[in-house]
Design a protein that fits this description.
- The chain has a single domain (about 10-500), classed as MFS general substrate transporter like domains (Growth Hormone, Chain: A, Up-down Bundle).
- About 75% of the residues lie in helices and about 0% in strands.
- The chain contains 24 helices and 2 strands.
- Strand 1 (about 5) and strand 2 form a beta hairpin.
- The protein has a two-stranded antiparallel sheet with strand order 1-2.
- The chain is mainly α and about 500 residues long.
- GO terms for molecular function: monosaccharide transmembrane transporter activity; symporter activity.
- Keywords: Membrane, Sugar transport, Symport, Transmembrane, Transmembrane helix, Transport.
Length: about 500
């Protein structure tokens, strides 16, 4: 093969290069885009459990909580579609924004998408912090959603393209690590601002400007990826950047493969149409099923509404916020575990182990709530049982933190060929945000009607997604991003969809 690489014993190309300080710094800066998503996930549940916020914007919910309507049904205290619209409106906006971000990412590079995302989030944070009515809250949330859509579309792709193949998992997981840090920071802020009466909620919402400013400034300073430069015809700049991020002069093998992928991409005038082709069937299935399953783990139900959930269990406001801080810390630590292990033991092992752990946790939580509150939700929970629930929630969060949390972003970002990468990532983000919206909008109503069965519902989905991983997801660790077809071609199910290299060359010649 060309200089600057070799073929491994598994028949997969490996490129020359090493982990450079430049790559580490740029990936850390890019991964900071996850802070805005994480901060929003963490801040929403805390704010919606603050009495000052509820009494000002959602008095009906406040009255239900204080007066104790719904015949004392503990499961239904916070069931309000207007309240959940405050949380979930962001994700509808993010879904729509991801399609616009896809075009900008493909035509102008990954960097402009991150810059636009940070700016939009910054404006949204300012509006929410100054909100005087529900309309201002929703407008602010929509702008936050645009920021999240742009960031989630561009950052994982940026990280996967900058990283050397053997470290791609760890570097990409820094995005999820930033999300978990954002969640933890939001939980800590909520715990502090919850004591500031009557405007602590303004601090919580307005301080979202800090992670937004970090992302905006960081993206303005970032270079673009070699893949993006070459895709846009900047070949020499792309080669120079490739040498810089790999730390070696001989990058011919990787450069040639990126150029070849770019030429194939240039022949694709309609990536949205092409991704429906038979050869991209496994990529399309993963772009839909992985983000769908990530949301059906039930994690965002826990993270969005952890303070509300714990308050429903009988915790005081302070105790509920404190419990959500604990889950936030567990989430950060578990993501670090994934960062260390993902390129060593692989994606599949983490997915499958976590499936068992999450299933058991959900069944235990549902069992305790069923035993204590009963079908009517009129019982009560003792202190020891409440502590057990918090512990088991932490066990569940830790499993998610080293599996579906980071890998739900990593795997889709690394499997798409360049010619459909922007479209594939847009589908991944839009599916993720759509079902995040659905779960956020439906969770409190589901908790009210399913009662403790809501956790058994998610446990059932964990079984289904674990079987899907076992039978349909190949291992992608240490495989160069432009060599991923080798993995699909060797898979017993997906191999029949992927043409041989000779057939690919013939197809490319016929299209030129």
């Amino acid at each position: 093969m060309a200089g600057g690489g070799f073929v491994s014993s598994a028949g997969i190309k490996q490129y020359a290069g090493r982990m450079t300080g430049f790559v580490i710094i740029t990936c850390i800066m890019a991964a900071s885009g996850g802070l805005i998503f994480g901060y929003d996930i963490g801040i929403s549940g805390g704010v919606t459990s603050m009495d000052d916020f509820l009494s000002r914007f959602f008095p009906a919910v406040y009255d239900k909580e204080i007066v104790g309507e719904e015949d004392g049904n503990e499961y239904c205290k916070f069931d309000s579609q207007i309240l959940t619209t405050f949380t979930s409106s962001l994700y509808v906006a993010g879904l729509l924004a991801s399609f616009v971000a896809s075009t900008i990412t493909r035509l102008h590079g990954r960097k402009p998408s991150m810059l636009l995302g940070g700016t939009s989030f910054l404006i949204g944070a300012a509006i929410n912090g100054a909100a005087m009515n529900v309309a201002m809250l929703i407008i602010g949330r929509i702008l936050l959603g645009v920021g999240v859509g742009f960031a989630n579309q561009s950052v994982p792709v940026y990280l996967s393209e900058m990283a050397p193949a053997k470290y791609r998992g760890a570097l990409n997981i820094m995005f999820q690590l930033a999300i978990t840090i954002g969640i933890l920071a939001a939980n800590l802020i909520n715990y502090g601002t919850g004591k500031v009466t009557p405007w602590g909620w303004r601090l919580s919402l307005g301080l979202a400007a800090i992670p937004a400013a970090i992302m905006t400034l960081g993206s303005a300073l970032l270079p673009d990826t070699p893949n993006s430069m070459i895709e846009r015809g900047e070949h020499e700049n792309g080669r120079t950047m490739l040498r810089k991020i790999r730390g070696v002069d001989d990058v011919d093998a990787e450069y040639d493969d990126i150029v070849q992928a770019s030429e194939a991409a240039r022949q694709v005038e309609h990536p949205w149409r092409n991704i429906l082709q038979r050869r991209y069937r496994p990529h399309l299935v993963m772009a839909i099923m992985i983000p769908l399953f990530q949301q059906l783990t039930g994690i965002n139900s826990i993270m969005f509404y952890a303070p509300v959930l714990f308050k429903t269990l009988g915790f005081t406001s302070d105790a509920s916020l404190y419990s959500s801080v604990i889950t936030g810390i567990v989430n950060v630590l578990a993501t670090i575990v994934s960062l260390v292990l993902v390129d060593r033991i692989g994606r599949r092992t983490l997915f499958l182990e976590a499936g068992v752990q999450m299933f058991i946790s959900q069944v235990v939580i549902g069992g305790i709530l069923g035993a204590k509150f009963g079908l009517m939700g009129t019982g009560s929970i003792d202190k020891m049982s409440a502590v057990i629930v918090v512990v088991v929630v932490c066990v569940y969060v830790s499993a998610f933190g080293w599996s579906w949390g980071p890998l739900g972003w990593l795997v889709p970002s690394e499997i798409f060929p360049l010619e459909i990468r922007s479209a594939g990532q847009a589908i991944n983000v839009s599916v993720n945000l759509f079902f995040t919206f659905v779960i956020a909008q439906a969770f409190l109503a589901m908790l009210c009607h399913f009662k403790f069965g809501i956790f058994l519902f998610f446990a059932g989905w964990v079984v289904i997604m674990s079987l899907f991983v076992y039978f349909f997801l190949p291992e992608t660790k240490n495989v160069p991003i432009e060599e991923m077809d080798c993995v699909w071609r060797a898979h017993p199910c997906w191999g029949r969809f992927i043409p041989s290299p000779d057939q690919e060359r013939k197809d490319l010649e016929l299209s030129m």
